[in-house]
Structure formats: C-alpha cells, structure tokens
C-alpha cells in the first residue's frame, strides 16, 4: 500500500492527463508507487546512479518542471522532504543529496514527462564531489581559482 505524506487521496489519471506511450503515464504507476502526495508520486529510478535514487513525478502529463502548477511543485517539495527523511533513517551512510531536473533534450532529458531526481550521496562515493550538479558539464565541475 503506498504511503501517504498527507491526507490527499491518490487520484487516477484521466484520459486527457495521460500521454500515450509515456512510461510515467502508466495507469498502474500510482498503484506501485511507495510514496504518494496529492498530485505527485515517487518511485525508485530504474537506472539509479546511487542506491536509493528516487524520481518524483507529477500524475498529470507535463513536459518539464517549468510546466508544473504551483500545487504540483508544492506536492513534489513535500515528497522530497518525506523521501529525505525515509532515506536518511534507513541508511545512516547517506550524508548528502543531489536534487536534479533535466528540462529539454540539450539538458539531458530523455523522458518528456516532468520528473525530479533525488540522489542520495555517501562519503567517498566519488573521488571529489565538489561542484556537485556542476558536473553535468564535466569541465565545469571544479571552481576556478580566485
């Protein structure tokens, strides 16, 4: 049974909210989601970059983060906080997180249904984590000397 972050009941997607062929518009996704909050749900990433990597996905088909409604952004934020609490309680080795959104093909988006990555980080999981999300452009990850 999906865990609720609040009293919002899960809603099924209506036909005009789904995009045929979109993996995140799958009718059964909400039923399989371990965490649900209002307009959004969270599932484990099928290709995680780290253990515990989760995706926060709006139920409504919307191409990217910039198309989310205020309510969808609020529900996604609530799920980010809930997931952080669950992940850190379950795995004390988690010492940080990356939160990321790819908007557009040139930014690396491959599924054109908005989704937010929550990636748990652990000490030593990479040689030098400084720069974090700046690593999306490898030559720009480090900071220039002042």
Automatic annotation (TrEMBL):
One Pfam entry name: HIT
Motif Histidine triad motif boundaries: 113-117
Boundaries of every HIT domain copy: 41-128
Biological source species: Nitratidesulfovibrio liaohensis
Gene3D superfamilies membership: HIT-like (3.30.428.10)
Protein's recorded name: HIT family protein
InterPro entries: AP-4-A_phosphorylase (IPR052908), Histidine_triad_HIT (IPR001310), HIT-like (IPR011146), HIT-like_sf (IPR036265)
Database matches in SUPFAM superfamilies: HIT-like
């Amino acid at each position: 049974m999906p865990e609720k972050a609040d009293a919002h009941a899960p809603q099924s997607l209506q036909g005009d909210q789904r995009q045929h062929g979109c993996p995140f518009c799958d009718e059964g996704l909400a039923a399989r989601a371990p965490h649900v909050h209002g307009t959004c749900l969270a599932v484990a990433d099928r290709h995680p970059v780290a253990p515990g990597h989760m995706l926060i996905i709006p139920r409504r088909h919307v191409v990217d983060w910039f198309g989310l409604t205020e309510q969808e952004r609020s529900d996604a934020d609530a799920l980010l906080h809930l997931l952080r609490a669950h992940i850190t309680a379950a795995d004390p080795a988690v010492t940080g997180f990356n939160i990321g959104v790819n908007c557009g093909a040139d930014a690396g988006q491959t599924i054109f249904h908005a989704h937010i990555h929550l990636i748990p980080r652990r000490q030593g999981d990479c040689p030098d984590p400084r720069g974090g999300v700046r690593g999306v452009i490898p030559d720009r990850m480090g900071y220039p000397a002042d």
